[in-house]
C-alpha cells in the first residue's frame, strides 16, 4: 500500500497542495533530486532566515546605544543569506534579493560617502554626527542620530559584498561539482 492510499481524501489534498508553485520557499526542493536535498537544513533555514534578518535590523538600529551598528548588522544579515545558500543553492539565494549585489554595494557606498561628507556643507567635520529629538503623537519622543544613515549605507555595502561572494564563489563551486559529476 502506498503512502497516499493509506491517507484519507482530506489528507491527500493537504499533502499534494503543499508542493504547489505558489507556496515555494526554497527552490532546491523543486530543482534537486529528493536524495540530494538536505531537509533538516532546509527546515532550519526556513525558521532562522527571517529571525536572523530581524536580529540584524535590531543590531543596525541599536548600534548607537548598544553593541552593533551597520557593520555587525550587515555581517549578521549576510550570514542569514549564507544559511539560505547552504540550504537552497545559488539559484535560491539569488532569487531572494531583487537587487543585484553590485547595486547594493554601489547604493551602500554612495549613502555612506554622502552622509560622511554632508557635515562639511554646514561647517562641520567629516563624519560629524548630530542628534535630533522630536515628539510623535502616540509614539512619544523619538531620537534620531544622523550617523544611523551612515550605518544604513555600511549595512547595504556589507550585505552586497557577502551576496556577491556567494554569487561568484558559489557558482565556481557548483561548476566544479558539476564537472566532477559528469566524469
Explain this structure:
The protein is mainly alpha-helical. It has six helices and two strands; from the N terminus they run αααααββα. α3 runs antiparallel to α4, α4 crosses α6 and α5 packs antiparallel against α6. The protein has a two-stranded antiparallel sheet with strand order 1-2. 66% of the residues lie in helices and 7% in strands. It has one domain.
* Terminus-to-terminus distance: 38 Å
Order of adjacent strands in the largest pleated sheet: 1-2
Radius of gyration: 22 Å
- Domain module tally: 1
What's the helix count? 6
Total beta strand runs: 2
The global form is: elongated
- List unreliable stretches of 5+ residues: 1-5, 10-22
Average residue pLDDT: 80
Percent of residues in beta strands: 5-15%
**How can the largest sheet be summarized?**
2 strands, antiparallel
Series of H and E elements: HHHHHEEH
Helix content: 55-70%
Coarse structural class: mainly alpha
Amino acid at each position: 500500500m502506498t503512502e497516499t492510499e493509506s491517507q484519507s481524501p482530506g489528507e491527500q489534498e493537504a499533502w499534494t497542495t503543499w508542493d504547489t508553485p505558489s507556496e515555494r520557499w526554497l527552490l532546491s526542493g523543486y530543482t534537486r533530486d529528493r536524495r540530494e536535498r538536505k531537509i533538516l537544513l532546509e527546515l532550519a533555514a526556513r525558521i532562522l532566515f527571517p529571525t536572523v534578518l530581524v536580529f540584524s535590523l535590531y543590531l543596525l538600529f541599536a548600534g548607537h546605544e548598544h553593541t552593533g551598528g551597520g557593520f555587525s548588522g550587515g555581517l549578521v544579515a549576510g550570514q542569514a543569506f549564507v544559511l539560505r545558500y547552504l540550504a537552497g543553492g545559488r539559484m535560491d539565494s539569488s532569487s531572494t534579493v531583487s537587487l543585484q549585489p553590485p547595486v547594493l554595494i554601489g547604493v551602500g557606498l554612495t549613502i555612506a560617502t554622502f552622509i560622511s561628507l554632508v557635515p562639511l556643507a554646514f561647517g562641520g567635520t567629516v563624519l560629524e554626527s548630530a542628534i535630533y529629538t522630536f515628539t510623535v503623537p502616540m509614539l512619544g519622543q523619538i531620537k534620531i542620530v544622523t550617523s544611523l544613515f551612515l550605518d544604513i549605507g555600511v549595512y547595504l555595502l556589507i550585505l552586497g559584498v557577502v551576496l556577491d561572494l556567494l554569487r561568484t564563489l558559489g557558482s565556481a563551486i557548483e561548476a566544479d561539482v558539476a564537472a566532477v559529476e559528469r566524469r
